[in-house]
Amino acid sequence: MVKDIITGITNTEIGFITDVNGIAYFTVNDETTVGKELWKSYGTANGTVLLKDIMPGVNSSEPSILINMNGTLFFTAIGEGSGRGMFLNRI
């Protein structure tokens, strides 16, 4: 384990782990944001962080289908006012 994202007895459900240039990108519900959001990890506790709460507030962006294409992360997520769409890791 690199980091206990949800401390205590609750299990952390990590999904869609994808390596892009040695950085692990994944989805997780950390119980501080609503629903699943996009995280990244450099393989250390301090380097494992929420990348961005794409849709802050009462809704989850539910990122999924993370794909490494020539060193760029592409994924789908629900954006504010746009529905589900394709995003780059430059958010």
Describe the 3D structure:
With 91 residues, the protein is mostly beta strands. It has one domain (15-88). The protein has no helices and 7 strands. The strands form 2 sheets. Strands 1-2-3-4 form a 4-stranded antiparallel beta sheet, with no helix packed on it. A 3-stranded antiparallel beta sheet has the order 5-6-7, with no helix packed on it.
Question: Overall pLDDT, averaged?
Answer: 82
Percent of residues in beta strands: over 45%
Radius of gyration: 13 Å
How many domains is the backbone divided into? 1
Main sheet strand line-up: 1-2-3-4
SS field, number of helical segments: 0
Helix content estimate:
under 10%
Q: Please count the beta strands (DSSP E, at least 2 residues each).
A: 7
Structural class of the helix and strand makeup? mainly beta
Q: Low-confidence spans: pLDDT under 50, at least 5 residues?
A: none
Q: State the end-to-end distance.
A: 27 Å
Largest beta-sheet characterization: 4 strands, antiparallel
Based on Cα principal axes, name the global outline: flat
* String of helices and strands: EEEEEEE
